[in-house]
Amino acid sequence: MKKIIILGATGSIGKIALDIARKFPQKLHVIGLQAHTQADTLLTLQKEFPHATLALTGASHPNQHLLQGQDALCRLIQNTHADLVLNAIAGASGLHASLYTLEKGIDLALANKESIVMAGEYLKKIAEKNGAKILPVDSEHSALFYLMKSPLAVDEYIITASGGAFRGKKVTDLHQVTAQEAMKHPTWRMGAKISIDSATLANKGLEVIEAWKLFDIPIDKINVLQHPQSLVHALIRTQDGALHAYISETYMELPIQNALLDPELALASCSFLDLVDKTLSFTAIDHETFPMVNLAYQACRQGDPYPIIYNASNEEAVALFQAGKIPFLAISRIVESALSQLYPHPFNPLILADIWQADRWSREFSSNYYKENHTC
Ligand code: NDP
Ligand code: MG
């Protein structure tokens, strides 16, 4: 029986993870749950998972049984003796949880792609030192993880993009679009931030960086294809020229389940995908309308700390867009401008303080850029 902690239990990934725990009571024992603001949902979950220690990290609540305060997350992870932590916290703050987990030598099922984008090298070093695994949850990376078990040498790694809410649109169509429209994802049901990132294709940009850092793939071997059906999650091209595709439902159940149950694959427990009469189509990314993918490649080529700067400036810009302060098209302009700056501080990817300094610098730059350019 694997003892697991689910972080971000009230979010889109967290809820699917809870369903998986319900489905495998003989294999998964939930001993910890974290939410940021939704105390009531967390307390309701306790009735169903009575052995779970609960942590509320972003609000206060009179219930004495909740771990609260600044160190609640750290106490939850480090005092409960879990075998695996699922990190499904949204945004850069998820990095703390990844660190607490790996420092304790606990396996990490990682949905929080920001952790790897910001501190891939650092996290992998700690994981190795403490004998812990990092198991990808992002569907494309989960797919690559299994495809890469191929004994053949790989020439190309392809991740797919649904195209988000504005697939097929041109720049002229996007001047006035709202956050509500950007969040209407055509194929995936996800949290607000990642849905907007899908509309700008920043999510795919982050995933290019994630693949590059997680698997040490040369950046020039990673490609992105638009695939509206979201059934093929990743492909590899082996040296003999063949393409191998990973095809599964457009639902996060399988990648989460495989990470939670690793190394055991839950044989045929997800719904059977019937390909009869299904169309699978692929097109190139429209980089002119959606510059965020190319900006991610640029960040990788510029090297550290530019992936951190990409992530933080995007987070700031998305928050401004959600607040109605900037138009949709300004998101990529802010990120492009942040990447064009010469980073003014020394940076060592193995020093945590340097990682957070780059994150802060990028947020300050982006917020000042907005103030100076108003609606950008
Ligand atoms: P949601 O917005 O649906 O959920 C986020 C969760 O994180 C909630 O439980 C929320 O708590 C908690 N949270 C929010 N802010 C903080 C914070 N500052 N500190 C601690 N906890 C916080 O997000 P998703 O589930 O969609 O995404 C989670 C992560 O997984 C992201 O990194 C995303 O990129 C990644 N991911 C998501 C996929 C998806 O299909 N949704 C697919 C692949 C990756 P509360 O609700 O209580 O405030
Ligand atoms: Mg993904």
TrEMBL record:
Name of encoding gene: dxr
Matches recorded under SUPFAM superfamilies: 1-deoxy-D-xylulose-5-phosphate reductoisomerase, C-terminal domain (SSF69055), Glyceraldehyde-3-phosphate dehydrogenase-like, C-terminal domain (SSF55347), NAD(P)-binding Rossmann-fold domains (SSF51735)
Binding annotation for NADPH: T10, G11, S12, I13, N112, E114, G191
Annotated positions binding Mn(2+): D138, E140, E207
Organism name: Entomospira culicis
EC number: 1.1.1.267
Domain of life of the source: Bacteria
Binding sites annotated in the UniProt record for 1-deoxy-D-xylulose 5-phosphate: K113, S139, E140, S162, H185, S198, N203, K204, E207
Positions of the 1-deoxy-D-xylulose 5-phosphate reductoisomerase C-terminal domain: 134-215
Functional description taken from the UniProt entry: Catalyzes the NADPH-dependent rearrangement and reduction of 1-deoxy-D-xylulose-5-phosphate (DXP) to 2-C-methyl-D-erythritol 4-phosphate (MEP).
Protein name: 1-deoxy-D-xylulose 5-phosphate reductoisomerase
GO MF annotations in UniProt: 1-deoxy-D-xylulose-5-phosphate reductoisomerase activity; manganese ion binding; NADPH binding
